[in-house]
Amino acid sequence: QVQLAESGGGLVQPGGSLRLSCAASGRILSMDVVNWYRQAPGKQRELVASINANNVENYLDSVKGRFTIARDNAKNTVFLQMNNLKSEDTAVYFCGVQGMHSSLGGFPSAFESLGRGTRVTVSS
User: Fold this and answer.
1) pLDDT, tens digit, 9 for 90 and up, residues 34-73
2) Per-position DSSP letters for the chain, written without gaps between them
């Protein structure tokens, strides 16, 4: 199994910045698609940013120019740099990864995992 652990959330004033990290553990062979989601209170989860195996990035319109997704494949870690934060960015942020790992039998097997989230609060 591949497990994900997010960190870096917290309380920040409007206009501030945070950098979220997501560390993946397990016998990972590749992280092909990496997604950052968020879920605000009373709202559905939404996809904020994604990066695929070809490093093509996509962003939710409301975060374009402010958020940047990145990853360090050697460390199985992904990041979300969030700048110029706004109150509407307040949410729990989750990372999701699709890729390949070495199963218990030693065979390559696809995986899809979602972390437990880290809370981001933007408030003065």
Assistant:
1) 999 999 999 999 999 999 999 999 999 999 999 999 999 8
2) --EEEEE--EEE-TT--EEEEEEEESSEEEEEEEEEEEE-TTS--EEEEEE-TT--EEE-GGGTTTEEEEEEGGGTEEEEEE-S--GGG-EEEEEEEEEEEE-TTS-EEEEEEE---EEEEE--
